[in-house]
Amino acid sequence: MRLFHALPQPWHLPMVAVLHLPEGRESRLVEIFARRLRMPVCEAQDKADIAPGTLHFAPPGYHLFVERDRRFSLSCEPPVLYSRPSIDLMMSSAADAYGPRLAGIVLTGANEDGARGLADIGAAGGLTAVQAPQEAATPMMPQAAIAARTPDHVLPLNDLRELLMQLDALHAATH
Q: Does the record bear Hydrolase in its keywords (predicted)?
């Protein structure tokens, strides 16, 4: 929540968040974030367009992919690193779709999911950032991402939010 809190409006860039949630439980993330943020928040749907200025959450129990036509697709393939949705799968597919026009951020977490996906974003020329492990509630994900490929930025959450604001301002100025 702290990463997205107080982002300026209007917001231009689409954002996708993948969290590991217990399978079979209803997610209330959209409801919680929609009450607190000043931007549209939704759960990603199969074949739905990736909407600008919107925070999209991966639905629990499904892998979320970004297709080359900039739409979402959902899959019930087996878990990756014990997780479905998989951060790696979403980030890797987004790197294929967006290439150097993509930014990826890995935050706190208890396994290595996201490390390979963030490395794929970097290999595609995208911007990569990781939450400073010493600030993370559970530093395993940030540490794994740093070990997999040196990110462009390792920052505390407040500075990651500033980075997002700079990227959004740059996007707005060039589109």
A: yes
> What integer pLDDT is reported at residue 118 of this predicted model?
99
Helix boundaries (H) for 22-109: 29-36, 87-98
Q: Are 4 and 37 in contact (CB under 8 A)?
A: yes
**Positions in the chain whose pLDDT score sits under 50:** none
Long-range contacts (CB closer than 8 Å, 24 or more residues apart) made by 7-12: 7/37, 7/38, 7/39, 7/161, 7/164, 7/165, 7/168, 8/165, 8/168, 9/38, 9/39, 10/53, 11/39, 11/53, 11/168, 12/52, 12/53, 12/168, 12/171, 12/172, 12/175
Of the candidates 46, 128, 51, the residue with the CA atom closest to the CA atom of residue 92: 128
pLDDT of res. 22: 78
* Residue 91 and residue 64 in contact, taking contact as beta carbons nearer than 8 Å: no
List of domains in the chain: 15-165 (3.40.50.180)
Cα angle for residues 42, 45, 51 (degrees, 5° grid): 55
pLDDT at residue 122 in the model: 99
Q: What is the pLDDT of residue 63?
A: 97
| Residue 97: strand pairing partners | none
Residues in a beta bridge with 73: 65
